[in-house]
Amino acid sequence: MDKATIEISDLGLAAALVCRSIKLLGTRQDDDGRVHFIFMHTRDTDQDIKDYWNDTLIVRAREYFDNTKMLKNRIYSER
């Protein structure tokens, strides 16, 4: 991983970042089988992550649900 990217293994956080229009670059599966979502890393990414964990990030509910499904499909289609 370089400084221009950030890897997220938490599905909920990854879906929230997609909702916030943070560019999803791809996925990577580690030796244990855990999937990591690779995002562009910007100042906004850091703030969105902080807001997510502080439970203050606001996203649209249906968009969040749809992005969660999309990411799950991506996990299982790449196995």
What portion of the residues fall into strands of 2 or more residues? 15-25%
Question: Strand count, sense and closure of the main sheet?
Answer: 3 strands, antiparallel
Q: Spans of 5+ residues with little confidence (pLDDT < 50)? A: none
Mean pLDDT across every amino acid position:
93
Number of strands: 3
* Succession of helices and strands: EHEEHH
> Which of globular, elongated, flat, extended, rod-shaped describes the shape?
globular
Alpha plus pi helix count: 3
From the helix content, strand content and strand pairing, which structural class follows? alpha+beta
Helix content: 40-55%
Task: Please give the radius of gyration in angstroms.
Answer: 12 Å
Into how many domains do the coordinates divide? 1
Q: Report how far apart the termini are.
A: 21 Å
Strand order of the largest sheet: 1-3-2
Structure, described:
This protein has 79 residues and is an alpha+beta fold. The protein has one domain. Helices cover 47% and strands 20% of the residues. The chain has helices at residues 11-19, 43-53, 61-77; strands spanning 5-8, 24-29, 35-40. It has a 3-stranded antiparallel sheet, covered by helices on one side. A hairpin with a 5-residue loop joins strand 2 (24-29) and strand 3. The longest helix has 17 residues, at 61-77. It is globular, with a radius of gyration of 12 Å. The two termini are 21 Å apart.
